[in-house]
Design a protein that fits this description.
The chain is of the alpha/beta class. The chain has two domains: 186 residues, Periplasmic binding protein-like II (D-Maltodextrin-Binding Protein, domain 2, 3-Layer(aba) Sandwich); 98 residues, 3-Layer(aba) Sandwich (D-Maltodextrin-Binding Protein, domain 2). The protein is 38% helix and 18% strand. The chain is built from ten helices and eleven strands. Strands 2-1-3-10-4-11 form a six-stranded mixed beta sheet, with helices on both faces. Strands 7-6-8-5-9 form a five-stranded mixed beta sheet. Helix 2 links the parallel strand 1 and strand 2. Helix 1 packs parallel to helix 3, helix 3 runs parallel beside helix 4 and helix 5 packs across helix 10. The protein is elongated, with a radius of gyration of 20 Å. The two termini are 20 Å apart.
């Protein structure tokens, strides 16, 4: 999923949450609590009601039928706003990405319900086709372009690739956040390399009218963790379990509905799978490597 700038939002989030939840001791919810008739639903990388309607109206209809609940859209400007609403109980359900999840989990005890896979979701390190750089070790002392701070595929994924190659993100190379200008920047040799998600790379090739012949992939990362549906810790455990069961049982029509959204091609071939918190440790490691371990 798309990521909003991390540092500013994280400071806002820390200010809004006076204490970090003790995940090992706190119960997720009160089993005796009654089930709400309405479930407010947000997607953390969709801004505004109009885009939420265009991309998730069909999904809202189907998930409402599956859960036998009224589903109301809850527009948010960023994942920090979603996290604060989850913590307060104003927001009941959210679809979020790996990067956002680890922060939301740490600060709000958001309950992972189920993960939705993204086929071919991994990061790449590219160099210009005529570059003399052949290995990651040769990037020491160089400038590497990336997407935006906190982006799973375009920042944390590439960081993990470089970490695994023995490079220190805080001292061994410079990072330039380039967003959509990344491919043009390495083609013009404004940076020596680019870290980017595979699907984003394919999209930019089309947008910029470039060819894979213009670039050379020197590293491909491991598959990145899946996006997730998460619940507010204020929901009863029994309801969370019911939601999980019904989503799995009806995953084919739910995924069919989500694919009707114009911005949801990333879920082509997706499946709903168990959400294991440990799968997101690689994201936590990358955050710590860039000096943001304090958010946990």
């Amino acid at each position: 999923m798309k990521r909003r700038p991390f540092v500013g939002f994280s400071l806002l989030f820390v200010a809004s949450c006076s204490t970090t939840v003790n995940q090992s001791n706190r119960s997720f919810s009160n089993l005796a609590a009654s089930e709400p008739e309405t479930l407010e639903f947000a997607v953390t990388d969709i801004q505004g009601s109009e885009d939420l309607q265009q991309n998730y109206q069909a999904f809202r209809t189907v998930i409402g039928e599956v859960l036998e609940k009224k589903i109301e859209f809850f527009p948010v400007d960023n994942y920090i706003e979603a996290a604060v609403a989850l913590q307060s109980g104003q927001l009941k359900l959210a679809l979020t990405g790996p990067s956002e999840y680890v922060i939301m989990r740490a600060r709000t005890n958001a309950v992972p319900i189920i993960a939705i896979t993204r086929p071919n979701y991994h990061s790449l390190i590219l160099v210009p086709a005529n570059s003399e750089i052949k290995s990651l070790a040769q990037l020491k002392g160089k400038t590497i372009g990336m997407w935006e701070v906190g982006a799973t595929g375009g920042h944390l994924g590439p960081i993990k690739i470089l970490m695994d190659a023995g490079l220190n993100p805080q001292s061994d190379f410079q990072i330039s956040m380039l967003g959509k200008k990344g491919l043009q920047a390495i083609k013009k040799q404004q940076v020596e390399a680019l870290g980017i998600g595979l699907n984003r790379y394919k999209d930019l090739l089309k947008i910029d009218g470039l060819s894979t012949k213009d670039f050379r992939i020197i590293a491909t990362g491991v598959p990145l963790p899946s996006d997730l549906f998460v619940a507010s810790s204020n929901l009863p455990n029994t309801l969370v379990e019911k939601i999980r069961t019904r989503l799995v049982e009806n995953q084919d029509k739910l995924i069919e509905a989500i694919l009707l959204g114009k911005a949801n091609d990333k879920y082509q071939g997706a499946k709903l799978v168990p959400a294991n918190d440990s799968d997101y440790n690689m994201i936590r490691e990358a955050y710590k490597a860039i000096g943001q371990g304090n958010v946990f």
